[in-house]
UniProtKB/TrEMBL annotation:
Annotated SUPFAM superfamilies: S-adenosyl-L-methionine-dependent methyltransferases (SSF53335)
Keywords associated with the record: Methyltransferase, Transferase
UniProt xrefs under Pfam families: SAM_MT
MF terms in GO: rRNA (guanine-N2-)-methyltransferase activity
PANTHER family (UniProt xref): RIBOSOMAL RNA SMALL SUBUNIT METHYLTRANSFERASE J
Protein name: Protein-L-isoD(D-D) O-methyltransferase
Native species: Archangium gephyra
Length: 255
C-alpha cells in the first residue's frame, strides 16, 4: 500500500546520507527507502509514497509529484532587514504583541517559521519561542532548518489545540495564530507550494479560547485579506496601518 509520507536520500551522493536518513526516519516513525545514485524520485512517488522527505547536501527537502519545498528563512530575513534601524512598530505582529526581549511566545501555526524567526529575534536568548505545526513534513523541515540556523525556536508537531492543552495557564506572554486562508492572497511560489503540504483546518473558537488561557498578555490572529476567518468567528478587528494588506484581531490573554 502506498504510504502518505516516507524518507529517502538525494541521488547525488546517496551513500553519504543513508545512515542519517535511516536513523531520522526511525525516530519520526516513518519508512526509509534506499535510493540508487542518479535514480529519479518520480517512480518512488508513483509507487511508494505520496510525499518524500529527502536528505541531501542542502539538508531536508519535501517532495511530491508536483514539486518540492525547502526551508528558507528568506521572508523573515527581508522583514528583519526592514526592521534594522527602524522602530519595531513597523512589523504588525511585533507591534500587536508588544514584544520585547525576554518575552515568551507560542506560534500556533508555524509553517516555515517566518513569523517565529522575527519574534525570536526580538525576544532574544533570554526569551522563548515555541512553534506548533500540524503538518508532519512541514514540522520536520522547519525543525531541521531552524536547527541549522541555530534559531532559538522549539518546534512541536501536532494540532495547536492539543499542544495548547498541555501548557499551563498564563505560561507565555503572547500566542499568535496564522491559519491557512483559502484565498489567493500570498501569491509567492513558496507559499503556494507550502499550501500543498499544509493542514487546512479552519480556525475554531476552541483554539482561540485555549490560546487566551495560555497567554498572559495578547492573542494575535491574522485574518487574511478579507478577514473572513475573523468574521466567521466573530473576532473584533483591530485597526492597523492602512498599508497592511491583512485583517487582524487582538484579544487579551488570561481568559
Ligand atoms: C499560513 S501558514 C503559517 C505561516 C507562518 N505564520 C509563517 O510565518 O511562515 C499556516 C500553517 O499552520 C499549519 N496549521 C493549520 N492548522 C493547524 C493547527 N490546527 N495546528 C497547528 N498547525 C496548523 C499549516 O499546516 C500551515 O503550515
Amino acid at each position: 500500500m502506498k504510504l502518505p509520507l516516507a524518507v529517502t536520500v538525494s541521488p547525488k551522493n546517496p551513500g553519504r546520507y543513508q545512515q542519517e536518513a535511516r536513523a531520522r526516519a526511525a525516530e519520526w516513525g516513518l519508512t526509509y527507502f534506499e535510493r540508487a545514485m542518479k535514480s529519479p524520485l518520480e517512480p518512488m512517488l508513483e509507487e511508494l509514497a505520496d510525499v518524500f522527505l529527502v536528505l541531501g547536501g542542502d539538508g531536508w527537502t519535501v517532495h511530491d509529484a508536483k514539486g518540492s519545498l525547502f526551508f528558507s528563512p528568506g521572508m523573515a530575513q527581508v522583514r528583519l532587514r526592514r526592521l534594522a534601524g527602524t522602530a519595531q512598530d513597523e512589523d504588525t505582529i511585533l507591534r500587536l504583541c508588544e514584544l520585547k526581549a525576554g518575552d515568551s511566545l507560542v506560534d500556533c501555526t508555524l509553517g516555515l517559521a517566518a513569523d517565529a524567526i522575527v519574534c525570536a529575534s526580538v525576544v532574544g536568548p533570554t526569551g522563548r519561542v515555541l512553534g506548533i505545526e500540524a503538518s508532519m513534513p512541514l514540522a520536520i523541515i522547519a525543525r531541521e532548518g531552524l536547527r541549522a540556523l541555530a534559531a532559538n525556536i522549539e518546534v512541536r508537531h501536532g494540532l495547536a489545540d492539543d499542544v495548547l492543552r498541555t501548557l499551563e495557564p498564563g505560561s507565555f506572554d503572547c500566542v499568535i495564530i496564522d491559519p491557512m486562508f483559502d484565498e489567493p492572497n500570498r501569491a509567492s511560489v513558496q507559499f503556494e507550494t507550502l499550501r500543498r503540504f499544509a493542514v487546512h483546518e479552519p480556525l475554531t473558537h476552541e483554539t482561540v479560547r485555549l490560546a487566551q488561557r495560555v497567554a498572559r498578555r495578547w492573542v494575535v490572529v491574522k485574518g487574511g485579506r478579507r478577514g473572513a476567518e475573523l468574521t466567521r468567528l466573530g473576532l473584533p478587528r483591530i485597526a492597523v496601518r492602512r498599508a497592511s494588506p491583512l485583517q487582524w484581531a487582538r484579544l487579551p490573554g488570561g481568559a
